[in-house]
Specification:
mainly alpha; 3-stranded antiparallel beta sheet; 3 helices; 3 strands; 55% helix
Length: 67
């Protein structure tokens, strides 16, 4: 089963190595997982969504490195 752990922006930045602006730009372009609303003024990401995104990036870069 997939974990429903929610992580906040500092942890997303830490896990991905991306800046805040790059994360939000990626969301706007549809190439980065969207946030989940936690309250009126707080958002987070599903940890499993970020892990899946990272797995896809790793797989894509490995394919590109072997071509």
């Amino acid at each position: 089963y997939m974990s429903n752990k929610i992580i906040r922006l500092p942890e997303v930045i830490n896990k991905t190595g991306l800046s805040r602006s790059t994360i939000y730009l990626g969301m706007a372009k549809g190439i980065f997982p969207k946030t989940i609303s936690l309250s009126e003024r707080a958002v987070g990401w599903l940890d499993s969504d970020i892990e899946l995104w990272l797995d896809k990036r790793i797989a894509a870069s490995k394919v590109a490195n072997y071509e």
